[in-house]
Amino acid sequence: WLKSLDPNHLVTVGEEGFWGPGSPQAQNNPQPSSSEPGWGRGCWAQATGQDFVPNHSIDSIDFAGIHIWPDNWNITEQAFLQRWIDTHMAAARDMNKPLIIEEFGKNV
């Protein structure tokens, strides 16, 4: 419907890029520390209603986008960030869509 109103602009989902609970990539979601009460390992990311591949696979979605908020997600390992980007790049490639890092934030 949106493309029928404006076919000249790119459309994306605008989510952080979390993997849904049924996704084989769900283990790559940000994992809260054990000191965060009320959240099981990975549960909060999966509970947001996002699922990267199904949400971006729709034909009217022009590109895939992710966000990277290491401090908000309580992530300190550089290896996680590399894996986050790599797994999303692979999924975007499989969907034949470009991947854009839409948001990035780091407390300084």
UniProtKB/TrEMBL annotation:
Among SUPFAM superfamilies, the record links this protein to: (Trans)glycosidases (SSF51445)
> What keywords are annotated for this sequence in UniProt?
Glycosidase, Hydrolase, Secreted, Signal
Secreted listed as a keyword: yes
Which Gene Ontology molecular function entries are recorded, alphabetically? Answer: mannan endo-1,4-beta-mannosidase activity
Coiled-coil residue windows:
none
Which InterPro entries does the UniProt entry name for this protein?
A: GH, Glyco_hydro_5, MAN-like
Q: Which GO terms describe its cellular component?
A: extracellular region
Pfam families, alphabetically? Answer: GH5_mannosidase
User: Which residues lie within the region annotated Disordered?
Assistant: 1-44
**Substrates-to-products reaction catalysed:** Random hydrolysis of (1->4)-beta-D-mannosidic linkages in mannans, galactomannans and glucomannans
> What is the main EC category here?
hydrolase
Describe the location of the Glycoside hydrolase family domain by residue ranges. Answer: 48-105
Predominantly, its location class is secreted
Question: Could you tell me what this protein is called?
Answer: mannan endo-1,4-beta-mannosidase
- The record lists the organism as Chlorella variabilis (Green alga)
